[in-house]
Amino acid sequence: MRNVKKLALSEPYREYIRLLLDLHSLESLDETEGDQADLIRDSMDAPWQLLSKTERDRITGLSADLYMITDPPPMLVPTTNSPQVAVEAVEMRNAGRWDDALTLIRSCCTYFEPALIAYIRGSIWMDAGDDLVASVFFKHASKRSPDNENYRTMYMESLSSADPSKAYSLAAEMLRNPDKHSSQSIVKAAEISFSQSKIMSETDSQSLLAVIAGILAKVIPKLTDGLAIKGAVYAQAVSLAAMCQDGLGNSAEALELYNKGIKETPNNDALLTARGILLYGQDASAIEDFRMAIRLDSPLVWPSFFLAHHCLITGQYEECLERSIRGLQFESANSVKAAFYEWIAIAHSELGHAKFQVRQAFESAVRLDSQNDQIQSNFAAFESALVSSSITNIWKKPSKLKIQQLGHQSQRRSLTVAA
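User: That's the sequence. What structure does it adopt?
Assistant: Structure tokens below.
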């Protein structure tokens, strides 16, 4: 995504927003005169006093936008200028000018369908980093236009971050009756349910993975028509189904799914990366999958990670250094960054580079993952070898199996699916 600054959400601001949304929920039920509503209003005084002027102005605008949900004004005939105003608001959103975008939308909101306005507002809040507020507007958009797949999908997407438990309940309900929902919505429900499987007991997780795999097996064929439109959803469904099969211990079935998905969408970097992780250490074709993903400018760290390790253990230290430095540019866990720095240190040493470069890289690795015994051991071995002036064959290098398992586990935790 474009590199823009998210909203700064202070604790008083978060608290006030939560209370405001609670009050909005009561308003939607026409229950604003009871004790519960009064208690909420009383609770709003303290955080309000701690808000900045910018935060207060933003909340005042949000309150007016929420009021339009419970008491929508009549639509007006669009002016010749209103479409351009809406376009400008979206451009402001894309530029990270969140408050300006929301203000501009208010100036033309009565000229468009309420569902569309709610969707645009939701997209602004989501891109700004507030999925809780975004989910309220996406929910309204979906309710106003229940046949719009994108509105429902975005509601579920924002809800999965704002309220994972509620999102999982909604997803589980949808998966119980998959024929009543669109394929795109079911794929999103499957993604949310898959993420929940990672915090379940082994027995419950296996049972859920089997259910998801069975549902996706029926959905995937429906997505093969019109791939120009459904390609991203198709690839996501294939990736999820493959990860379910892999989680069930059915690696052959997972590979078959990846092969099928890549055949239909050959330039999907996420599918290539996932297949490469599955095959790493077992089939040399995994390396070409990672190289292809890099040629496709994949935003994922794993192609660089696995290629760097491959070059490390095969003695290709120039490329190991290059891939590791590149890998540090991606978002990843500290343990992954620490591994890159460790491999950079080893590559510097093997290439005869300055000792201070080796030491700096090891120090960075230790700072990022101080509990990693292998990094500590290699750093100590390097320091000891300096005394004897013999820095050859001293390194402990992780096996392909260990790296494959790390990539597998991390991929499941981060739910890296094709999009």
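The mean pLDDT is 90.
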